[in-house]
């Protein structure tokens, strides 16, 4: 092919030649294997040390001045870029110090403080430099400036005082402490002041410092330290007085288990076991139960070590009392816990505490006016009344408890006959029969119940008041005309009094009632009554009347058995009656 430019191009096929592969003649593994880790370690070992910058020697003053100028320029450039970097300032000041130019070093430190004087480490390093060069007055001036600018930094005060004390300037150190105490530091500052005075056997000064201390910090911690100071000095009377003053002056704030535990431990150490026991008991009576767990534990340990059987039991009772207090506090409506709590106090024998527990318990009324919620609650009142009557032997309070209990019960919705009857029986035991009748009459008028009627009738029957019994039966039947048992009991009463006509009339009124709860009981009692009276004809009429109402097979069988039995009016008529009864039974 011709080239347009008049040249001819010849295309040749160019072949790329690859390198000849290396032939491995011996493919067996080497006798000594080398790992990659060994190769790296060997390379590291054979590596030559890096050459550091060459250290030049300064031979004349001009070269030294040039070197210092260069370094100062570097430091100035650094702090100009990073003005707030305290490390750069510290390096600059230390370099100036290493050059022996203390005035320049002080100038750098002052410039550092101008940037941020709140940095405590700068003050400490600055003063440390002054002290290394024995410039004590300069150091004092720095400490004065530091504590004036940062009076709430305790470390500055501690360092300042330590310096003065190391120099033997004890009055100066005391003056610094007095300046510091005007700022009312924390507990450690006051304690450090006391320790310094004790190092120089200034006991009176230390006691005066403690007085200022408890005035500045009226806390349990301060008073305990004051008392320990007096006890360590052997002044047990003053130590005891410190604890007593703490309880008096702190008031409610001082009623903590820490103070009383320390006070009791002090008395125990002094072998005053009765005092310690009194302190424990006082604390348990005045500190809230939820905050006295440790106090209870210490008291139990104390009694086990130094107490008798009665004392140990008293502690156990206190511990159980604490548990019950927690339970009733968690759930005031848990009446079972109140029962256990009251029973515990009753066994302890303190009537006032028992009354307190019962009063607290009955103050927790059930939330709903449903009888099932009130059943356990009412038994609290009953137990309270029984305690006042049997244990405390106080009839007036017992009567008041029953009266308040009856006021609390919502009688329009439900009532408790047990309370009415127990109140009436209490009055009978007190030989107050009119009061008992008044209570039972009020019960019948307010919340009539069959149990109240029965008990009232039984009481009057025992007293032989038949007319009252009849009146009560009449009210009973007016209230419950369908109660067959009441009708039967009323008739039996009249029968026992040989008032057969009255009894028969009661039975007649009973069977005429439109609704009866157990009519078979009533008819059977009526029939048995006529049989007992020997009235065969009237009994037969009753069976006939009963059969008009029901055709039950048992009635027929009873009727036949009645006719079969003999009912002799006299001995001469035995045979005649037997024959007549057999014929009637056969007819039935």
Walk me through the structure:
With 588 residues, the protein is mainly alpha-helical. Helices cover 72% and strands 0% of the residues. Helix 2 (61-81) packs antiparallel against helix 3, helix 7 (154-166) runs antiparallel to helix 8 (170-181) and helix 25 runs parallel beside helix 27. It is elongated and about 160 Å long. The protein starts with 35 loop residues before the first helix and ends with a helix. The model is unreliable at 1-12, 570-579 and 581-586 (pLDDT under 50).
Q: Report the major sheet.
A: none
Q: From the alpha carbons, calculate the radius of gyration and give it in angstroms.
A: 55 Å
Structural class: mainly alpha
Number of helices: 30
Q: Secondary structure elements and their pairing?
A:
Layout: H1 36-45, H2 61-81, H3 86-98, H4 102-115, H5 120-132, H6 136-149, H7 154-166, H8 170-181, H9 187-199, H10 203-216, H11 220-232, H12 236-250, H13 257-269, H14 273-286, H15 293-306, H16 309-330, H17 335-348, H18 351-362, H19 371-391, H20 395-408, H21 417-429, H22 433-446, H23 450-462, H24 466-479, H25 484-496, H26 500-511, H27 519-533, H28 536-549, H29 553-564, H30 574-587
Helix pairs in contact: 2-3, 3-4, 5-6, 6-7, 7-8, 9-10, 10-11, 11-12, 11-13, 12-13, 13-14, 14-15, 15-16, 16-17, 17-18, 17-19, 18-19, 19-20, 20-21, 21-22, 23-24, 25-26, 25-27, 26-27, 27-28, 28-29, 29-30
């Amino acid at each position: 092919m011709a080239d347009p430019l008049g040249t001819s191009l010849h295309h040749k096929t160019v072949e790329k030649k690859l390198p000849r592969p290396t032939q491995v003649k011996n493919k067996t593994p080497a006798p000594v294997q080398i790992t990659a880790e060994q190769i790296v370690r060997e390379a590291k070992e054979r590596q030559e040390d890096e050459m550091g910058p060459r250290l030049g020697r300064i031979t004349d003053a001009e070269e030294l001045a040039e070197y210092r100028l260069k370094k100062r320029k570097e430091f100035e450039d650094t702090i100009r870029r990073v003005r707030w970097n305290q490390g750069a300032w510290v390096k600059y000041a230390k370099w100036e110090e290493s050059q022996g130019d203390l005035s320049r070093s002080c100038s750098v430190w002052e410039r550092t403080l101008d940037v941020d004087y709140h940095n405590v480490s700068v003050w400490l390093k600055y003063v440390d430099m002054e002290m290394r060069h024995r410039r004590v007055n300069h150091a004092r001036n720095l400490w004065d400036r530091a504590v004036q600018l940062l009076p709430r930094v305790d470390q500055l005060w501690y360092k300042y005082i330590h310096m003065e004390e190391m120099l033997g300037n004890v009055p100066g150190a005391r003056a610094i402490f007095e300046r510091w105490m005007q700022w009312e530091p924390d507990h450690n500052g006051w304690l450090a002041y006391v320790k310094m005075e004790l190092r120089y056997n200034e006991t009176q000064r230390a006691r005066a410092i403690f007085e200022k201390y408890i005035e500045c910090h009226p806390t349990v911690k301060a008073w305990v330290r004051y008392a320990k100071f007096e006890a360590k000095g052997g002044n047990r009377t003053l130590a005891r007085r410190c604890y007593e003053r703490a309880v008096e002056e702190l008031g409610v704030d001082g009623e903590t288990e820490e103070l009383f535990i320390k006070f009791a431990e002090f008395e125990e150490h002094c072998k005053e076991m009765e005092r310690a026991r009194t302190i424990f008991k006082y604390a348990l009576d005045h500190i809230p139960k939820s905050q006295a767990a440790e106090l209870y534990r210490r008291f139990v340990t104390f009694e086990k070590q130094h107490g008798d059987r009665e004392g140990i039991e008293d502690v156990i009772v206190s511990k159980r009392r604490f548990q019950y207090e927690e339970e009733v506090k968690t759930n005031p409506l848990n009446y079972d816990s109140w029962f256990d709590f009251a029973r515990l106090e009753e066994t302890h024998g303190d009537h006032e505490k028992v009354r307190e527990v019962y009063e607290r318990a009955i103050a927790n009324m059930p939330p709903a006016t449903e009888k099932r919620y009130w059943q356990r609650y009412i038994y609290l009142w009953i137990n309270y009344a029984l305690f006042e009557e049997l244990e405390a032997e106080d009839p007036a309070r017992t009567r008041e408890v029953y009266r308040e209990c009856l006021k609390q019960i919502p009688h329009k919705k439900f009532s408790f006959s047990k309370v009415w009857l127990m109140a009436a029986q209490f009055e009978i035991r007190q030989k107050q029969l009119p009061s008992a009748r008044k209570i039972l009459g009020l019960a019948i008028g307010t919340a009539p119940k069959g149990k109240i009627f029965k008990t009232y009738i039984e009481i009057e029957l025992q007293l032989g008041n038949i007319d009252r019994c009849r009146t009560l039966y009449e009210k009973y039947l007016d209230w419950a005309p369908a109660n067959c048992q009441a009708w039967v009991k009323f008739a039996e009463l009249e029968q026992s009094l040989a008032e057969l006509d009255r009894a028969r009339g009661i039975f007649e009124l009973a069977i005429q009632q439109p609704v009866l709860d157990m009519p078979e009981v009533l008819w059977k009692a009526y029939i048995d009554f006529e049989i007992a009276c020997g009235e065969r004809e009237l009994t037969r009429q009753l069976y006939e009347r009963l059969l008009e109402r029901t055709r039950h097979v048992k009635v027929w069988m009873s009727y036949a058995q009645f006719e079969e039995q003999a009912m002799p009016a006299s001995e001469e008529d035995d045979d005649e009656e037997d024959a007549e009864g057999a014929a009637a039974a056969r007819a039935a």
